[in-house]
Write a structure and sequence with these properties.
about 160 residues; Gyrase A, domain 2; 6 strands; 2 domains; DNA-binding; elongated; two-stranded antiparallel ribbon; homodimer; four-stranded antiparallel β-sheet
DNA sequence: TCACGGATTGAATAAAAATGCAATAGATTT
DNA sequence: AAATCTATTGCATTTTTATTCAATCCGTGA
């Protein structure tokens, strides 16, 4: 129950990818695109996903509606990257002088990009596999700080 | 029907005030509140107003939907909130160690929300009544800076 | 003043989104 | 493994929102 449903998380990520790469006007359109991408879902599920992801539909400058990632106060400090981490990271632990992050299958690269984007001063390098990320830090004592920083992001609403 | 162009602008401002001072779930609820406030409108008009104001409906932390002022135009947000301030603020003055802002009647909440969105570092707190806002700042000398910042926004074209 | 033209609006309706319910998939405990 | 939860989902339906169409309003220029 801590980890949740993997398929659902993958679908959520796909939804974020879809709405940030193209204009989507309706939930039906979105579920059709998800179906093409291999996610068999109905509009009802998309509606629930949208509530959980706190997506918004609003008019653009031409008055055309489209779904967008909302920028709530919470997200503002870390942007949508923190959001991606919360959606993909399963665990985050100290391992000797490295930080080892586990993600849901296939999501390590997305999560790693998010971590890189943070530009934390103590982080000197990252490597992403399929579901694992290694984070190298400057000093051994930085490991603890990075783990704490990550957990802080992961625990936000 | 005594509705006109100016009435529409006033209604738009009233909508901004309403959604920034309370949680509103549906357009029907909003049109009911507008009716109470003296604006006789149907849901159809509210739908159009919402498109024009680029408002969004999204879930809060509890999954309850409510209408909010869009932050999708974060680059232009100063302009957007500045617009609200210019439309509502009557005066802005230093009062001891506070900044006191007077607005047209009933608009303090909308204006206060706009000020809050500026996220000025010197501002530590705000309180809005019906037509008055108190702004608390960190240091006494910050009062002057905030008054100047506000006046700068108010004097823009 | 009167006629014209664009804007605004309400009523009705179409379109889109949210939800109650039941089935089932997954996890947890015994 | 069986029993028991909890979470997820689709279907059907309700609720909510957007739009169409016609009427009315407002400003403008003759």
């Amino acid at each position: 129950m801590e980890q949740g449903n993997i398929v659902k998380k993958r679908r959520h990520m796909k939804i974020l990818e879809l709405i940030s790469s193209q204009d989507i006007e309706t939930q039906d359109d979105l579920s059709e695109l998800l179906r093409i991408a291999g996610f068999e879902v109905t509009q009802a599920t998309v509606s629930r996903d949208i509530r959980e992801l706190k997506l918004t539909k609003s008019a653009d400058e031409n008055g055309i509606y489209k779904y967008t990632i909302s920028q709530s106060e919470d997200d503002k400090s870390i942007g949508k990257y923190g959001f991606i981490l919360r959606e993909t990271v399963v665990s985050c632990e100290k391992a000797h002088s490295l930080v080892v992050v586990k993600t849901i299958s296939g999501m390590a690269n997305a999560a790693c990009a998010a971590i890189d984007h943070m530009q934390w001063p103590h982080v000197v390098g990252t490597i992403a596999g399929d579901d694992t990320i290694f984070i190298a830090v400057k000093e051994p004592e930085d490991v603890k700080n990075v783990v704490e920083a990550l957990n802080s992001i992961l625990s936000r609403a």
